[in-house]
Design brief:
This protein is an all-alpha fold. It has 3 helices and no strands.
């Protein structure tokens, strides 16, 4: 009866790694083939599609009472003062939850140092 040595385990490891590499290369080749076929089909569909009409420039909506030049100037001033930023969340100004703000206030004030008794 033959004993299973460390060298046998290392040899088996290399065989298993080799099989995994070959299988992953086959899968990558199949995926690449699918991508090529789908891109050719998309190119043929675009070639057969009728040409799209040129987009017509839509009129800018007019905001009553505020000239667009003023809005542009205010926006530029705000951008200069605030700097690089992005809008993360937009919601109605009147929407709010009293209980969440109260809990938040309670939590923040719990970290404040207390006066000695």
């Amino acid at each position: 009866m033959k004993t299973y040595t460390t060298w046998d385990a290392i040899g088996d490891m290399f065989i298993i790694y080799g099989i995994v590499i070959v299988v992953s290369m086959l899968v990558a080749t199949v995926i690449r083939g699918i991508v090529i076929v789908l891109s050719r089909q998309a190119a043929q569909a675009e070639a057969k599609a009728p040409p799209k009409p040129a987009p017509v420039a839509a009129a800018q909506p007019v905001i009553a009472g505020i000239p667009q030049e003023h809005i542009a100037a205010i926006s530029a001033a705000v951008a200069m003062m605030v700097g690089a930023h992005r809008i993360v969340h937009i919601e109605m100004a009147n929407r709010g939850f009293g209980w969440t703000s109260e809990a938040r206030t309670t939590h923040h004030t719990s970290h404040a140092p207390r006066a000695s008794h």
